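During the reporting period the student researcher (J.K.) took over the structure-prediction task from the postdoctoral fellow and processed the backlog of single-chain submissions. One of the processed entries is reproduced below for the supervisory committee.
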Amino acid sequence: MPEQGFDHFTTHDGLAIAYRVSGHGRPVVLIHGFNVTATVNNATHLAFDGSGQLAATAGPTVEGALLDAGFQVVMYDLRGHGQSATPHDPACYSMDAHAGDVQALVGHLSLDRPAVVGYSFGSMIAGRLLGLPWVSAAALWGTGSFFVEGEFDLAMWADIARCFTEGCWDDYPDFAIHRSLAELCGSDFIAIGAVARGARGMPKDILSAATMPVLVLNGGADDGAADEYDLTPFVPGARRAVAGDANHQTAPSDPLFHSELATFLLTGT
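J.K. obtained the following structure tokens:
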């Protein structure tokens, strides 16, 4: 069922992309993570219930926090996800195609130098936009050096793709969270597998050329919070922050996370 307030536009290669615009003020484009949706990542409070299952519950969200801070919030479903087009052709899911969707959406809405905020997989998309003149600032969150080319685990992502396309979940018990999230979001498993197969790390030359303010933000229990996975050596001038003690799935619901992000977007520091 379509979610409230979403519209569609035709992106650079003819696919339909679903998006929602809320509020007024300086625009911020939110780029969600792998195998979720814009609504789940940015407009839903997630927490683990008593049985250890991730569930939606009442509580603060990224979208709500940024609206309260006076921003215009633009979020969209990545190709292959949610209400956007879900082709099964792996050729549709290059990282350049994902980055092109952000630029096409900004053009479609005539946004004036928005900030871009990418979570997890979305950080690998936002990272490809650093240095472009229409981007005023960037926050890469739920991320780390493991998302940089040369460090990126292509073999692991190929295995994730196989789980979605071939159903070999029993061979990879550590990937159970991906299956749970896909079921929570009603994902097209074949399309999500194709997205995983096209995943590539952020180019070092783009990261090193960034000139706008950049924040690298992680929850305290997320992998990217560890010093060994610090992304900032690849992005000169970027500020690193660790907020709260949430893990990768729950950090976007942590108000400490929201506060750190909003302060950066308001001040550029």
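The committee noted the following: The first helix runs from residue 38 to 42.
J.K. will present the remaining backlog at the next meeting.
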